[in-house]
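Letters spell out the chain; backbone shape is given numerically. Take this protein:
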Amino acid sequence: MVLQETVTSFCGGGVMDTQTNETVISVKKVSKNFLLPHEKNTSIKSTVVNIFKKKNRSVETQHALKNISFDIKKGEFFGILGRNGSGKSTLLKILAEIYQPTNGSIDIKGKLVPFIELGVGFNPELTGRENVYLNGALLGFSKKEVDARYDDIVEFAELEEFMDQKLKNYSSGMQVRLAFSVATRAEADILLIDEVLAVGDADFQRKCFDYFKSLKKSGKTVIFVTHDMGAVREYCDRAILIDNGVISLEGKSDRVADEYLKLFNDSKSKHQQASDNRWGDGRVVIEKFSLTAKETIKLDVTVRANDEDIDDYVLGYRFYDSEERLVMGGNTLNASNSSRLSLEAGKSQRLIFTIPHILGTGTYTLATTIRSGPSVCDNWDGMADVKVSKSEGYYPIIAPAEMEIK
């Protein structure tokens, strides 16, 4: 089987780099504690009695954030990752000034608009049209300003036919689309986004990300909290991973996304011991491989299923340059003769990727990932290095294999 695919993808979604060295958000040694009382007040009497028993009250301190520090530059698309309960949403609410930190300081330069609780202030008994004006007023717009923006808001939300219906008849996705569309009209230097697009369909999510990319081109700063590692890899320049209230990793989005996925894999797989550069649940693993780069790049991989039949798996490859930038990649799903791959327990399968050689002079590192559903079976970073040396002359990262001059 020959799988042929060429994909070029750059961190940040290939968006023109408009970053500067200006720091617009500086977080210094921020901690946030919450007091959790263990005694319940079920009546007025118990509330009064517990006030006078203050010294003996059972109270637990939850350390949601512990000494967090990082900086964000102007124009960055910055990811904040972490499992549920890790502290990432608490951090976002501190950045949005909903919470105040227990210790530490935050310095923000510019106007910040949070996309955290979209639709707060919406009235379900009012129509969509009336809620646009209500929400616009909460954002500080005059009626005249909402009038000028109304058609754009409705068009972006794709709700032209429903604006005179009461909001209580909208689906949750329709409500978020309307709230998001209104919020995008607020002029801001920094946007804080907390998984607000989870209920939107694929087309609307793509429209929202296109909007974020347009902001990035104009030098706006976006802070993005999500569980979607595909979006992190495509759009984010840098990211941090928060685990148990502390930053466990800060760096390029691909690396941080990989570390996030490791949190959901069993590091004690009997088939494969986790390491710094290789990890996964071990249900499907790479047995052997070879890599050559001549007229074409040829990646020859043999995979094996271990203790169970695998009905649906995907193998992908990525090439990074010497500065750890993602420069080329593809997988079995987007190959020209792609199909869903399956494998019986104990069986092996050989996959050959034949890729046009468009890499310029330099040293590149290969990484591969095998996924089955949401799980990572075998992720292998630093799998192999390939040195490319073409004829004399200047070559960028991507160089055409052939060209003609007339």
The chain is about 20% helix and 35% strand.
